[in-house]
Amino acid sequence: MQLQDIQGPSQLRGLSLAQIDALAAEIRQQLISAVSRTGGHLGPNLGVVELTLAIHRVFDSPRDKVIFDTGHQAYVHKMLTGRADQFSSLRQQGGLSGYPSRSESEHDIVENSHASTALSWIDGIADGLALRDVSAHVVGVIGDGAMTGGMAWEALNNIAGKTQRPLVIVVNDNGRSYSPTVGGLAHHLSTLRTSGGYERFLQWGKRTLHRTPVLGRPIFKALHGLKRGLRDMVIPEGLFQDLGLKYIGPVDGHDVAALERALIRARDFAGPVIVHCITSKGRGYVHAEEDIADHFHGIAAINAETGQPLKVVDNTWTQAFSDAIVRIGEHRDDVVALTAAMMAPTGLDAFSRRFPDRTFDVGIAEQHAVTSAAGMAYAGLHPVFAVYATFLNRAFDQVLMDCALHKAGVTFVLDRAGITGDDGASHNGVWDMAVFQAVPGLSIFAPRDGAALERALQRSVSIEDGPSIVRFPKGALPPVVPAVRNTDDGLEVLREGRGDVLIVAVGPMAGLALGIADELEERQIGATVVDPVCLKPLPSSITQFANSARIVVTIEDGIRVGGVGDAVTRQLADCGVLKQHVSIAVDDQFLEHASRAALQQEQGFTVNAGVDRILHALEALNR
Questions:
Q1: Is-catalytic flag, 281?
Q2: Exactly one of 57, 83, 261, 281 is catalytic; which is it?
Q3: DSSP notation for 197-243
Q4: How far apart are CA 73 and CA 485, in angstroms?
Q5: Which of 140, 289, 320, 392 is the Cys-Cys partner for 122 at CB 3.0 to 4.6 Å?
Q6: Catalytic residue among 50, 104, 260, 366
Q7: Measured between alpha carbons, how far is 447 from 457 in angstroms, rounded to an integer?
Q8: Beta-bridge mates of residue 246
Q9: Is residue 311 flagged as an active site residue?
Q10: 394 catalytic per annotation
Q11: pTM for this entry
């Protein structure tokens, strides 16, 4: 049977192991062929081919629920649930999402791409099914990187107490932290420790020996300890031994037969079980296997034959930040850098090579990173936490209560701020300007170009009595936009026109604002364009500029509700300046995956759309 014939996972169960091996090879070829053209998470999916096949052969999706933590490892799952023929549309507008999507398939449950959440999901799903008397297994596939997130451990703590829940936790360990144990003894011990007979024997022994005066309890502890000691001789002592959860593994994550044996034992055990699988990220594609940095974790379009990118963008926002933070570090030995398992993607790799003792990777643990940064600030350092904008949402409470309340001098550098596009709803960084407006004493900077980025970063690390944010989008740097003049409170005037329209441009929206102003000038409508530079607190001089304009336009690459536009109108109202306001911003909705350019056009971030809205506003004033 070929991949194109697979319309659902039930068809896998009648295949021989030889047929499954052939199917695995075909899946890898399609992954390489498709993702090399569309970009996406190639390495993680090459590593879970056999694991996903085994899961769908042992469990009955969608009756049994299969949840992928950080759903970028669900490409193979998509192929096996009837979507292989659509795979060329991956991450394209109107095509398949790069993450599970309920609108695509009943086999997809969790769409969120933020890590460490799957175990909480399966805990809640299992409780809900049990209360509704629905008989089904619930499977959570979590990568070893996601196990560094605190939510995973909170969930494990709760799952461990639910001894009757049919939960299976599949740990996809692609970090080579352990070597898989092979041979009959490991297989026997895994069988023994998850068999109902063994559990009944253990409980009988506990009851009997505990009734024996004086010596009974010590004997039971000694026998239980002997079992544990024997176990630790053949499997790694590690994450799960003291949680009270049954453990199978390590299992070779590329041996379908071994995986199926382990998963069947886990399925048939009446309670939560952890199945620990060792996989190799990038398996089967030499260029991914030889990529020491991240085994082609996430790639843009590449030449499948050479593994080289089809397009190289040199002057990016991330690179500009990377260069700037190294320069700052060379002059400030109190500046330290933090990352949440994204050293290279956030541009901190150069800083880490230059200052390894001043660089901290906390794993996928944004909440811990923020509070740890507050502690570093207390100890006399100035931490710079570089993180994708969408992921700082996870640590709002820590920014509020640990940093802002304690006036901690911490800089948050938000990469991928604004619309990001291809990776879908949960990767867009459009909430930060609204969410963090509510934090007292926090400053927000939005540079418009590379030169402004360095100035903003320098200004941010000089703030020692409160937290600050420096935000910028993904992609290539725009041309430098010089200011015509600066006001005393830091606002930068990019264009001065007659007093018809004031355009407040947030960061890299400056280019669009100037384009709109040029088009308005062609229509004999004067427009002044200003860049506030600091979005919180806003420069007070905005009020003076607004006072002489007929309408005020704000352009921001964030959500409209609670964003910079709302802050501007609030500041004007506080000063008694009431003006017609046009807000060009992201609608209050989750954006579907598409290219960044397509989404920006859809949301009205174009010269024509902006001009039309301004003309309508002016016409309304004239009526």
A1: yes
A2: 281
A3: HHHHHHHHHHHHHHTSTTTHHHHHHHHHHHHHHHHHHHS---TTTTT
A4: 50
A5: 140
A6: 366
A7: 9
A8: 273
A9: no
A10: yes
A11: 0.86
